[in-house]
Amino acid sequence: MKSLALVLAVALAARASLAAEDPHANHKMPAAKPAAEADAHANHAAPEKPAEDPHAGHAGASNTTTSVQAPPPPNDHAADRIFGAEAMAASREMLHHEHGAHVFSKVMIDTLEYTAQRGQDGMRWQGEAWFGGDINRAVVKTEGEGEISGPAHHAEVQALYSRAIGPYFDLQAGLRHDIKPSPSRTYAVLGLEGLAPYWFEVGAGAFVSDKGDLLARAEASYEQLITQRVILEPRAELNFSAQAMPAQRIGKGLSDIELGLRMRYEVRREFAPYVGITYSRKIGASADLARAAGDDAGETGVVVGIRAWF
User: Fold this and answer.
1) Which of 107, 118, 121, 306 is most exposed by smallest CB count within 10 Å?
2) Is the per-residue pLDDT at 1 higher than 70?
């Protein structure tokens, strides 16, 4: 009994302590109100949503006047506003000039050589000069050959307009005049030259004379670097005629071929002496015309010459 009385005393003391900590202890919670009383607007229908305003979100007219800046002109440059249009015009012109508006010129002596061969030694030249830009150029070409102590057997000059039609090829058109052999002839020229795959330099041209004669020429060369200064260059040229031209000793069809192998040493890129060997032969009816005139149909020679450009 004493133990039970002690337990009750401890329980009553604990309850009195909790009551002192929480002043609301043992207070009854109010009964929940009915749903109708809890919300006076319960079961009231909500008002209909007003119709959308088609002008909603549009800014209304303001009583204050605001300035609207006009768009800049199409050729407006920001730097002009700082440095002035006149000063920047000169700078833009220089930029344009340095990025594609250059005008260049070049004189190229491709071959100027002495030929030692059976019988009469000879000489040969081939070169060109051009002036213009990357796309359009004026070109003058010349080539010929003859005897050292005699007149030239063949000499021609071409004046051409050259137009780039791609990264590697130029289309050319103009005039060609044959000074030798006599009688001289003038031709209209249409040609193509450029750099073929595997770095072959190629060229082809068609020539129509003032007499209605049609000629054609194809040539190719390749530069094989032995060292950075020693270069071996094989070269080939073929000439064709659509008709016989006895006065010029040209037969119908493939008239002649020229093959050459030259090795040069570039003292500078602009100047290179060379030695080599050449072989030329007239074909078919052209060979018959050469023999009838007392000439050989084919010749082999050793050449010494220079290649230069500036």
Assistant:
1) 118
2) no
